[in-house]
Design brief:
This protein is of the alpha/beta class. It contains 12 helices and 15 strands. The structure holds zinc ion (2 copies).
Length: 351
């Protein structure tokens, strides 16, 4: 027999272009094998911004996939205890489809299926509480402030990207883009012992790239027009490029400049009809690989939390701004304007 809907939550719903509403729902009562988490912080990432801006018009939309919270109730057969700070991977992993069985659960066949219930579509982290199976819950150290703990999911996405590129310690790596994801790549790569060169034409972003651990920070124009990469890499060229912004132009530049045997990772999402034009022989003679990456797997989330247990100050160089739920409209507008590395909705006043 299905449980009655009696668990009250307060949710932030995007109801139309530039429109948000705080709505209250009654969710099904949690079952014994589910974890109840009181949400503390949830970041406004690109998908949420796209829905708010109207470039992805899915309404009503219950966004929020970068969250940190506190366990209120957990099944007895897990290590989770009430009061434990956790990150939550809200992407669905059915465990049964071909992708999940191959260990590629970031490609789960049911990821973008419409919900089976009548609540708005979306990952649903913009909520006073989330009720999830325990495989989606990852313990975090108490020493990590909530607004930094909510960066666990984007860190996991970068770890996935770095793992896809088979990066080795001491590799010379170029990160194109000093936005939030470029900086998170820089932080994670520096931790792995790489020498990181960050390239961004917005020189106002250069100081944050240095703060994230970059060895050198240059403009993309300098990459193309000077010998700087040859100087830094003793003439060989970088081992890996991560393209976190700059569109297909950045990917083309990276493919032209990467060293023999090197890899170019496409982290950024591109426009639907973008096409890449390359001298195909470059890939053949120079043994260059172009690699895609998307989101994170359960294993990446676990690795992210393990890193954060060892390095609770890992995100100290990033600027995070948290606004209470009542200022959510301002939070969305600020996120789009790009004032901080991450704008968070702070749900703590509710609980
Ligand atoms: Zn995200
Ligand atoms: Zn699946």
């Amino acid at each position: 027999m299905s449980k009655p809907n009696s668990f009250p939550v307060t949710a932030l719903i995007v109801t139309g272009k530039g429109q948000i509403e705080i709505q209250k729902f009654l969710l099904p009562e949690p079952s014994n094998d589910q974890v109840v988490i009181r949400v503390e912080m949830c970041g406004i990432c690109t998908p949420e911004q796209r829905v708010f801006k109207g470039s992805r018009a899915t309404y009503p939309y219950w966004g929020g996939h970068e969250l940190a919270g506190i366990v209120e109730q957990a099944p007895t057969n897990t290590d989770l205890q009430p009061g434990q700070q956790v990150a939550v991977g809200l992407m669905l992993r059915c465990g049964e489809c071909e992708a999940c069985r191959r260990g590629l659960n970031n490609h789960c066949a049911y990821l973008n299926q419409p919900p089976a219930d009548n609540f708005p579509i979306g990952p649903r982290g913009f909520s006073s509480h989330v009720i999830v199976p325990s495989y989606k819950v990852f313990s975090l150290p108490t020493a990590l402030p909530a607004e930094k703990a909510a960066l666990t999911e984007p860190l996991a996405c970068c770890l996935h990207s770095i793992q896809r590129a088979r990066v080795a310690s001491k590799d010379n790596v170029v990160v194109i883009g000093a936005g939030t994801m470029g900086l998170l790549h820089t932080i994670a790569l520096t931790l792995q012992g790489c020498q990181v060169i960050v390239a961004d034409n917005d020189v106002e972003k250069h100081s944050s790239a240095f703060a994230a651990g970059a060895h050198r920070v240059v403009t993309i124009t300098e990459l193309e027009e000077t010998n700087i990469l040859a100087e830094i890499t003793s003439g060989w060229g970088p081992d890996v490029f991560f393209c976190t912004r700059g569109g297909v132009d950045a990917i083309t530049i990276a493919t032209n400049l990467v060293g023999r045997g090197g890899r170019v990772v496409i982290y950024q999402s591109l426009r639907e009809n973008d096409e890449l034009r390359l001298r195909a022989n470059l890939l053949h003679y120079r043994e260059i690989e172009i690699i895609g990456t998307i989101a994170q797997t359960t294993a990446d989330l676990l690795q992210a939390t393990r890193i954060l247990y060892k390095h609770t100050t890992l995100f100290n160089s990033l600027t995070v701004k948290a606004l209470p739920l009542q200022q959510a409209l301002e939070a969305f507008e600020t996120a789009i304007y790009g004032e901080a590395n991450r704008i968070m909705i702070d749900f703590r006043d509710l609980n």
